[in-house]
Design a protein that fits this description.
Shape: elongated
Order of helices and strands: HHH
Number of strands: 0
Helix content: over 70%
Strand content: under 5%
Distance between the termini: 59 Å
Low-confidence stretches: none
Number of domains: 1
Structural class: mainly alpha
Length: about 70
């Protein structure tokens, strides 16, 4: 039975991969123990959060210009 990576390790791996700084050791751990669906969900949530934050920053900046 696979041990799994846990939610913290999944989020950490997804963030590291998004920034391009994932270590080889963690990448190998993710591929051997992690569930692909967990990483996909973490990536989608992270992408949506990133887009929302960018949208809020743009709104804030544009409201300061007017």
């Amino acid at each position: 039975m696979k041990k799994g990576t846990g939610i913290f390790a999944t989020v950490q791996s997804a963030l590291a991969a998004a920034f391009g700084v994932q270590s080889n050791k963690n990448r190998e751990r993710d591929f051997s123990q992690g569930e692909p669906a967990h990483f996909i969900i973490a990536g989608v949530i992270g992408t949506v959060a990133f887009i929302c934050i960018l949208g809020l920053i743009v709104k804030l900046v544009l409201s300061q210009i007017e």
